[in-house]
């Protein structure tokens, strides 16, 4: 009697263990990784020997792809850094530094510009002897150009040639002042810049002389002949 009971209990225990193992097996999803920890890393780290040449070539291709992607990422990052890099002060596209003297607008700007222009005339008259001489010549020629009997276009040419001499002389004086502001020592480039400005003044004087000689010269010759 006791042996039959023990055999029945053993059979029931065996059926229970079989049911539990079956339930555990069915609870595992098809895509669950049931390998032991570290097995995947070891397999990925060591090349498969049984796969032959195909496995080794596949690993080599994967390594090349990884290197190519890394190089592409580094190139893209460097390109982005270059694109967002601030412009240097020597770059012509760089923004100009803030000038507090450029903040005036409208009539205020015109008023300050007129005051600065008059200050420039005062400085040129006081400091530049060449400008004083040319201004004296202009004081004689401009009234003559206004009263001489010529057509309006010729009159504009006469007056414009005189004013052109004054304009070029002012520019030459500004160049000389800028060079002296940089340095007062003798330098080949400083001498060249001043000589070029002086040459520009000489060209303007030659143009003024030619204009007056072509337009007013025949009139003066006719007046002399009529007087004699």
From TrEMBL:
Pfam families assigned to the protein according to its UniProt record, in alphabetical order: DAGK_prokar
An individual GO BP term: phosphatidic acid biosynthetic process
UniProt remark on cofactor binding: Mn(2+), Zn(2+), Cd(2+) and Co(2+) support activity to lesser extents.
PANTHER family linked to this entry: DIACYLGLYCEROL KINASE
Job of this protein: Catalyzes the ATP-dependent phosphorylation of sn-l,2-diacylglycerol (DAG) to phosphatidic acid. Involved in the recycling of diacylglycerol produced as a by-product during membrane-derived oligosaccharide (MDO) biosynthesis.
Protein name, entry field: Diacylglycerol kinase
Amino acids binding ATP: 109, 128, 176, 185-187, 194-195
């Amino acid at each position: 009697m006791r042996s039959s009971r023990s055999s029945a209990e053993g059979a029931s225990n065996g059926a229970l263990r079989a049911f539990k193992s079956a339930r555990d097996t069915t609870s595992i999803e098809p895509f669950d990784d049931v390998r032991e920890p570290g097995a995947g890393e070891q397999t990925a780290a060591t090349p498969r020997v049984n796969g032959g040449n195909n496995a080794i070539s596949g690993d080599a291709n994967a390594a090349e792809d990884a290197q190519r992607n890394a190089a592409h990422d580094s190139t893209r990052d460097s390109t982005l850094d270059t694109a967002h890099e601030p412009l240097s002060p020597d770059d012509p596209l760089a923004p100009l530094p803030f000038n507090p003297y450029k903040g005036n607008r409208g009539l205020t700007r015109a008023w300050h510009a007129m005051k600065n222009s008059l200050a420039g005339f005062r400085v040129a008259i006081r400091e530049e002897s060449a400008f004083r001489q040319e201004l004296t010549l202009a004081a004689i020629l401009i009234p003559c150009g206004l009263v001489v009997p010529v057509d309006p276009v010729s009159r504009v040419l006469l007056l414009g040639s005189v004013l052109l001499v004054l304009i070029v002389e002012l520019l030459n004086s500004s160049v000389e002042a800028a060079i002296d502001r940089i340095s007062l020592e003798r330098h080949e480039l400083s001498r060249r810049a001043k000589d070029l400005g002086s040459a520009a003044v000489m060209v303007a004087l030659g143009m003024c002389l030619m204009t007056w000689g072509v337009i007013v010269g025949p009139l003066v010759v006719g007046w002399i002949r009529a007087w004699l």
